[in-house]
């Protein structure tokens, strides 16, 4: 409750402030549309009023299946404004996966971009009496019920842009479910508020920031940038299709200053055929996370005039939790050496506070020697409230008073953390631990390699050995032997992959390579390495 010296924290306050301070400033741009901050606030109030008229109350779930469009950005304010909890669904999921999320969350309403109507139609009988609203961006209305603009065409009520309890849930985000059913991760108003401010500090945003939405808003609520850019009074540039041609077009047209993206997006940007013709009017700042980026990817982006910062986190910690905080003495290093440092996961955000590498059994911290591997654990303001309706999973994740990431890492002498692998990804060959990330980073240095994933494959003598799945750059044709020899010249021979398979890599919608599918293929019929 509010008192003279206490106000519950909520990112809803960000919109109220920016609408007051910058009423006529462009808040949202999408194609030929734009909304000022005053219009943004008005649309949110009308949206919230319409939700209230539909009976949405405190704790009710409202789901969205929508790309990075203005309605989804507005939902990050309108749904919690009436006390609801936003459930933003991955647009690349299969119908049955979407059905599970709608059922598990108990969502009462579903807003669907009609391009994805084909995902919803097969599960109509399974999702009960969920009320559907059409978002008609490139396709006409498909489902019974109003379209979005029609839905929010109501006289707005007045709302208080805040909450009485800062630990009230604001969003429910579902994990990718690579080892079973996806888990619902609960965010609070307090956590969203603090992590949004952390993003502003670490990404050095200011009121002149023009932020391009290359990162899915459905992924950790866009790493909380849905609220952060509003907090600083910057401009959101919405983007439907995240492809290099469209990314560069928007960068030039709107003088974009900041964007966030998984390494896979940066790979596409760095290898874009028309990159030589790109004229950036502003210096471009890029935040990357989602998978450990190779130093080669960072170097390639910085060579075209960008600054890349590496952050690290998970859905369970509101997206980024740590950053490779840059030190001035590193400025004079060669670009290759700078890139190696920037590929580290670094130190906790100023708003996150706690992170360590420990022995997961004893919880004792590992030495800061850059070599001894342990598990990354975190605690603090931006750790999730828990898994929705899954208390046993929550208890397991929080054992020992820390959140267990499942990521294996080392701590360097300066305290900076560097990921070496996922617990389930590490290859144990003849008793030797091999970091697949280390092997991938070497293969990425090969000039013909576009993407790579390394997993363990069974081996009669050694138990398991590394195998690399490689996507080549267009017009190149190295042999498997060429790449294996390239690795053997740069790392210990036992770490080099024993086989290379060329082709496209399976990925999630956030750009993460789905190694579990590659492992399942290699270990089919066996009891190991299928997760």
TrEMBL record:
Span of domain AMP-dependent synthetase/ligase: 15-388
The entry's keywords: Fatty acid metabolism, Ligase, Lipid metabolism
One MF term in the entry's GO annotations: ligase activity
CDD domains tied to this protein: ttLC_FACS_AEE21_like
GO BP: fatty acid metabolic process
Protein name per UniProt: Acyl-CoA synthetase (AMP-forming)/AMP-acid ligase II
Coiled coil regions, renumbered to chain: none
Limits of the AMP-binding enzyme C-terminal domain: 438-512
Family that this chain belongs to: Belongs to the ATP-dependent AMP-binding enzyme family.
């Amino acid at each position: 409750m509010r008192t003279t010296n206490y106000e519950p924290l909520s990112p809803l306050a960000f919109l109220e402030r920016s609408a007051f301070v910058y009423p006529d400033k462009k808040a949202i741009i999408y194609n030929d549309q734009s909304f000022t901050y005053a219009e943004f606030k008005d649309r949110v109030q009308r949206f919230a009023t319409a939700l209230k008229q539909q009976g949405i109350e405190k704790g009710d779930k409202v789901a969205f299946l929508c790309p990075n469009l203005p309605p989804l950005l507005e939902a990050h304010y309108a749904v919690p404004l009436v006390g609801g909890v936003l459930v933003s669904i991955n647009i690349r999921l299969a119908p049955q996966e979407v059905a599970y999320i709608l059922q598990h969350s108990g969502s009462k309403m579903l807003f669907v971009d009609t391009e994805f109507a084909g995902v919803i139609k097969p599960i109509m009988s399974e999702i009960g009496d969920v009320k559907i609203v059409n978002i008609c961006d490139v396709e006409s209305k498909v489902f019974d019920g109003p379209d979005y603009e029609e839905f929010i065409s109501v006289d707005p009520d007045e709302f208080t842009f805040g909450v009485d309890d800062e630990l009230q849930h604001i969003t429910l985000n579902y994990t990718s479910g690579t080892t079973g059913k996806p888990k619902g991760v609960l965010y609070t108003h307090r956590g969203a508020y603090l992590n949004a401010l952390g993003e502003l500090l670490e990404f050095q945003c200011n009121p002149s920031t023009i932020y391009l939405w290359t990162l899915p808003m459905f992924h950790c609520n866009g790493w909380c940038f849905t609220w952060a850019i509003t907090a600083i009074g910057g401009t959101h540039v919405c983007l439907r299709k995240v492809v290099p041609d469209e990314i560069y077009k928007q960068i030039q047209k709107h003088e974009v200053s900041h964007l966030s993206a998984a390494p896979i997006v940066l790979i596409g940007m760095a290898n874009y055929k028309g990159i030589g013709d790109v004229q950036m009017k502003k210096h471009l700042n890029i935040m990357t996370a989602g998978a450990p980026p190779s130093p080669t990817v960072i170097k390639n982006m910085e060579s075209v005039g960008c600054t890349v910062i590496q952050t690290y986190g998970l859905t369970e910690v509101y997206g980024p939790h740590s950053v490779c905080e840059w030190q001035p003495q590193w400025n004079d290093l060669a670009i290759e050496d700078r890139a190696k440092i920037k590929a580290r996961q670094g130190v906790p955000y100023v708003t996150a506070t706690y992170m360590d590498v420990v022995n997961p059994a004893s919880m004792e911290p590992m030495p800061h020697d850059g070599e001894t591997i342990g598990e990354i654990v975190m605690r603090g303001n931006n750790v999730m409230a828990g898994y929705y309706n899954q208390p046993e999973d929550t208890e397991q994740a929080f054992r020992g008073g820390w959140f267990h990431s499942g990521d294996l890492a080392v701590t360097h002498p300066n305290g900076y953390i560097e990921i070496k692998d996922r617990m389930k990804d590490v290859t144990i060959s003849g008793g030797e631990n091999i970091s697949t990330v280390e092997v991938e980073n070497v293969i990425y240095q090969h000039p013909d390699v576009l993407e790579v994933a390394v997993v363990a494959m069974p081996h009669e003598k050694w138990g398991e050995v590394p195998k690399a799945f490689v996507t080549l750059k267009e017009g190149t044709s190295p042999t498997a032997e060429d790449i294996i020899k390239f690795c053997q010249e740069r790392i210990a021979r036992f770490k080099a992959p024993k086989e290379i398979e060329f082709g496209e890599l399976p990925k999630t919608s956030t750009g993460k390579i789905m190694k579990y599918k590659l492992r399942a293929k290699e270990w089919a019929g066996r009891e190991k390495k299928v997760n």
